[in-house]
């Protein structure tokens, strides 16, 4: 979208009087007198204007979508309009409605409301209308707003206990940044508890809530756990599939409603629409959290309701399953249970397939030159889309030879090292390296390099032209 052109005040130069009649000295003296009087008058007028500034003739009192034009400091100087910063989609990163002054009427947004809160427990009303109004004031963000995504992730503020934990978290974060850069998404990484009593699994809800308020231009907030890695850099969220829903989680309906299983969904990766429904839902969901006096009671309720829940604490995933079970009529129609692809996939069933997937993709590329053509990273999406024609028979999920979208290292605990005892810490760390290098190869290829092996995080090799032919 083109930004509104910034107009400049145009000035007229003083014309010079030529051909003065030298024979009339009286007429000449008259002109000098009149000229001096005019200079004095202009000086008085300018002084008065400085003391009592008049309203800007270009200021609009409307609260519509037209953005105010910048004021130029001097009409006698040819000032070029500033080159305002824009994002990858051409949205104006500079403009915001002016602040209230004693002579300017305000162009108010919800941010000017002193009662606005970013925190759970202080509900926001009429959020959909507030977002629409904000977009009216920031029309450069209106184009493409329905598909704008903000990714959110986070980890603890203190150093990891696991000796390699900080390095692993850094690599997981890099992986998310790579994915967002390729697809033009913004990302917010948080490493503080926004509400200290909402710790552990509950910590993401305050972050998502605050992100909605901080980013009214984003239609979707996409929470991705710190221990989840994108292992298909080409795949893009099928947002059109979710157009009638407000919350997307990886899950299976029969496990929720027939088995009443705690593992019927995974709340570590979720896509939630930035809307009033979501704010209301999160308030109810968070009411089971540790910041409430009913936290212990909710632990007992959730454990008695869900057949396979072994630990006594109330957790976010059990709470989500409970709401779908007990309040299905209120929330269920707007929740999409995504089970057709690896919206997030369990690492134990994925990592062992990565070598075979690499070989399968290379075989296809050898026979299709346009898939292996070198290109700039900025146009990677178009090349990723070309792969779909050749992945029709790959399947999705378990047993597929298609790249898994997100590989989630549930139970590995890379930062604390307190991994699930059903597998060794070494198997977790090795699997993480393989998945991260598998993803990194897809990124590095656009820079002319690849890792020498999936377990080799340090060494890379330059790629020959027309690789892998």
Automatic annotation (TrEMBL):
GO terms for cellular component: Golgi membrane. GO terms for molecular function: galactosyltransferase activity. The keyword Glycosyltransferase applies. Gene3D superfamilies: Spore Coat Polysaccharide Biosynthesis Protein SpsA, Chain A (3.90.550.10). InterPro entries: Glyco_trans_34, Nucleotide-diphossugar_trans. It is a single-pass type II membrane protein. The chain crosses the membrane at residues 30-51. It is found in: Golgi apparatus membrane. Keywords: Glycoprotein, Glycosyltransferase, Golgi apparatus, Membrane, Signal-anchor, Transferase, Transmembrane, Transmembrane helix. It holds the Pfam family Glyco_transf_34. PANTHER family: GLYCOSYLTRANSFERASE 7-RELATED, XYLOGLUCAN 6-XYLOSYLTRANSFERASE 5-RELATED-RELATED. Belongs to the glycosyltransferase 34 family. This is Glycosyltransferase 7.
């Amino acid at each position: 979208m083109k930004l509104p052109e910034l107009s400049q005040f145009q000035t007229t130069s003083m014309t010079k009087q030529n051909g003065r009649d030298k024979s009339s000295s009286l007429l000449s003296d008259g002109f000098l007198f009149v000229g001096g009087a005019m200079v004095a008058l202009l000086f008085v007028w300018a002084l008065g204007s400085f003391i009592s500034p008049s309203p800007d003739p270009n200021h609009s009192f409307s609260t519509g979508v037209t953005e105010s034009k910048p004021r130029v400091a001097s009409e006698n100087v040819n000032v070029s309009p500033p080159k305002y910063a824009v994002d990858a989609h051409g949205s104006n990163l500079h403009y915001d409605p002016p602040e209230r002054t004693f002579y300017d009427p305000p162009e108010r947004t919800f941010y000017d409301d002193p009662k606005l809160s970013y925190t759970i427990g202080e509900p926001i009303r009429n959020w959909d209308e507030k977002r629409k109004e904000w977009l009216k004031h920031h029309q450069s963000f209106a184009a493409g707003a329905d598909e704008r995504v903000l990714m959110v992730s986070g980890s603890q503020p203190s150093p990891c206990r696991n000796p390699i934990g900080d390095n692993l978290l850094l690599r997981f974060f890099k992986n998310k940044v790579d994915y967002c850069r390729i697809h033009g998404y913004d990302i917010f990484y948080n490493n503080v508890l926004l509400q200290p009593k909402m710790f552990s699994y509950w910590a993401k809800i305050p972050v998502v809530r605050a992100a909605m308020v901080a980013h009214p231009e984003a239609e979707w907030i996409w929470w991705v756990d710190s221990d989840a890695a994108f292992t298909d850099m080409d795949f893009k969220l099928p947002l059109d599939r979710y157009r009638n829903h407000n919350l997307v989680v990886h899950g299976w309906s029969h496990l929720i409603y027939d088995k009443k299983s705690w593992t019927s969904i995974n709340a570590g990766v979720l896509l939630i629409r930035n809307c009033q429904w979501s704010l209301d839902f999160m308030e109810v969901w968070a009411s089971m959290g540790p910041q409430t006096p009913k936290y212990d009671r909710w632990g007992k309720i959730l454990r008695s309701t869900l057949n396979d829940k072994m630990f006594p604490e109330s957790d976010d995933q059990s709470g989500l399953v409970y709401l779908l079970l007990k309040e299905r009529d209120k929330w269920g129609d707007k929740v999409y249970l995504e089970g057709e692809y690896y919206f997030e996939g369990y690492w134990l069933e994925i990592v062992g397939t990565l070598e075979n997937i690499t070989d399968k993709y290379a075989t296809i590329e050898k026979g299709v030159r346009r898939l292996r053509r070198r290109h700039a990273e900025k146009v990677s999406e178009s090349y990723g889309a070309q792969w779909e024609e050749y992945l029709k028979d790959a399947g999705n999920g378990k047993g597929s030879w298609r790249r898994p979208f997100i590989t989630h290292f549930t139970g590995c605990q890379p930062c604390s090292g307190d991994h699930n005892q059903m597998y060794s810490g070494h198997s977790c760390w090795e699997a993480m390296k393989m998945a991260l290098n598998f993803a990194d190869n897809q990124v590095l290829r656009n820079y002319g390099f690849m890792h020498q092996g999936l377990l080799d995080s340090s060494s890379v090799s330059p790629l020959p032209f027309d690789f892998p032919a």
